[in-house]
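Person: Please work through this fold.
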Amino acid sequence: MLSYFYIIKFCETNQYYAGSRYTKKLTEVNIKNDLWTRYFTSSKIIKMLINLFGKNSFKVVRTKIFYDTKSAKDYEIRFLRKVDAKNNPKMLNQSNSVFENSPELQWITNGIISTMIPKGKPLFPGFRFGRTQKITKQHINRGPKNKIHVIDIETNDRLMIPKESFDSKKHKKPDLAYNRNRIWINNPITKESKIIKQDSTIPTGWVKGNPRRQKTTWYHDPHTKINYQIKNNEYPPSNLVKGRFYPFIWYTCPLTNNNVLCKIDDQPPIGYVKGRNLSMKGHA
């Protein structure tokens, strides 16, 4: 298998990079046109410098052809150790061997791209020490998360206001015990809401409940047997009856605690009464 050793020069800083190339694709015909035509080293730093400064910022200084892979690897290791590439400021290599762990590295950045180089080696043009800080998205709190419960000092009513509207002269923070015996009321027209004492009279135009958490009640049509869910602050049609229509009724036997589900029009078994036994023994 043909292989070769090479040295390239980064013209911007007059630094060098040495390596070896071995692959089955190399032949005596194309080996001279391989380096810097199809192959641009396997170094991440070299590839980054090509993207920043272009291919013309490098120049091939030397190549040496071998007819087996081992010879090229051994020659590369001998060269890197001879020049002490990982500690040599003139070399871009990060180690003195092909399989050697990289030395102690440090981050450098040009404000957009970050990379690591061995300590003691000169910086690339336009780079400085440090790492590019990624811009994080700012999450804006909306809705109830951006509001707080306060007590109006003058009226002693509890309100929900934006955090930035809090005024210590007008409001005070509520005590946890203040929640006892309090109810939410709201104005359907202005969409305002506040908490008052349960024994207080509800102002004209206000109804119970929080507009953000409106409760609903089940109604059904006795003729069509259809169930409807209607909000508490709305008035249901006159033909509806409060409650939910169930086509089945539970019956239980007081002696055996067994439960039976029967249709409304059917007669329950003898000895069974209306209702359901929810004990563990008779739960069916």
Q: What stands out?
A: The chain has four domains: 3-129, 147-208, 215-245, 246-284.
